[in-house]
Amino acid sequence: MVKAYLRYEQARAFGVVASPEASPVYDDSGRHLVTAALERLSVWDVRRGVEAKSLVPPQRESGVVPAVTRIARAEGSDLVAAGAFDGSIRLWSLDDGSTDVLLKGHRSEVTALRFNAGGSLLVSGGKDTNVVVWDVVAETGLCRLRGHKDQITDAVFVEVGGAFVGVVKKGGGGGGGGGSGGVGVSAGARLVTCSKDSTVRVWDLDTQHCAQTIAALGAECWSLDVDPFGRRLAVGTNDERLHLFAIAGSHPQITEEGEGGDADSDDEEEDGGGDRVPASEINIRKIILKRETLERWITEPFFSACAPGCFVRIGIGLNSQRKNVYRLAEIADVVESKHGAYNLAEYEYVPGSGRRGSRWLILRWGAAERAFRITEVSNSELQPEEFVQWMQMLSKDNRRPPQLRDVAAAEEAIKRAENYRYTSEDVAGIVAKRANAKNGMQHNLASQKETLRRLLDKARADGDEDNVEYLQNQLAQVMSKLTQKLDKGGTQSVMANINKRNNQINDANLSRTASEQVARAKSGAPDLSTSNTFMRRPTRKATYYTINRKEEGKAAEAAEAEAEAGRWR
Known about the structure:
This protein is an alpha+beta fold. It is 27% helix and 28% strand.
């Protein structure tokens, strides 16, 4: 065996060439490569294979210099940012190897670092789950973005033609394809970040809040980047999948790429079908119905048609800390009295009001469906983590998230419900339901008359002349039936006659009593009612008395004089 390896021996040792955490970056000329070597940066001459420069940070008071974990370079500039293990970021100039700026914004290791295209902004992410946007020119932090639940792995500014925009997912490639999920289109500065919490978040830098969360990736997100033309965003996950997103401009026309689609036809597919973009968290929030809305709608004829497709925040009980737990769920259907093999009982839908109903909501969470009362729906706002949980359940059950066209349809249904006008069929249904409310027993014509009068007033207020005419005919029929019942001597007639007779008797008794009192006063006979405990005493209301004290005194003197004269007669 020829021992060829013995012909070579070590000539030189370079020490640490590159740290395992930080990826190397080229300078603007492409002739030099910058690598992290523990606490310092090494600048290598690529053609000659030698170290051209070593950038050593100044000694700190503690005597400990943290290792470099991330490197980023601003395009068209010699500026390089180096994130360190202690959460600090140092800015270097490759031309003269100087460093004058040290940024501190993280509590632990910097794990993501990226400049924007102009080099004026720098974004950093850390193990502390925070994202910080820095103004490189002013050498200060602009904002801190919180929302991820695990280490930040990468970040990128998304911009097309100098303007930041949103992105929408197109499909998956690689080993297992990709599910659908996406980001809604909106104007303003945008930053996209990914994390080990299996989510990609789009941040609105104008309002400094999360504009979109993609939680349907199903694995830890490790990296992302934008293509040179600004048309695609790629997200890599640790399950050997690559997820592609189309970057949408101010007037997007986007279609979701199906399995087995032709990559060469991407531009043609983007020219139409924008309503098939997966809905964002902001979109879903627009079609969430609160309990107060459901309480107004539950007895209306449009409820069963308008509620499905909308969402609610439903309470499912208490956790181990005795706190309420809520879920975001889609209204799949509205049922009454029965769902599958289960009988659904009538319940009081406004606690303490006495108003009862038998309509239940069939809610869908992932692939599971279950019946809920509207009393279990929350009036509070949706929390971001609840949206993430819902998206994760959709991914787990392999369900397609709602698309923009689904949200648009639900918004249109809500608008129709808010501006609904009763039709003749609706009025007939309400009257029939009231008539059958007592399980076939004879219904109350007086109640039916009041219902028709209320509906008639509403139709007149809405200017619905056709419905006004129909309701007037219905009211005339009810009044005719009511008159016939009174003429035939039914229950209503008997009660009316009793009231009439009692009124006549009361009037006669009052007249007789008044006459007796006048005659007794004229005769001077004593008033026996004061000595008889069981005799009714005539009383007068307080308003009968005069307020004029002088007139009252004169009337009293006249009565006393008349009584005195009567004694002497």
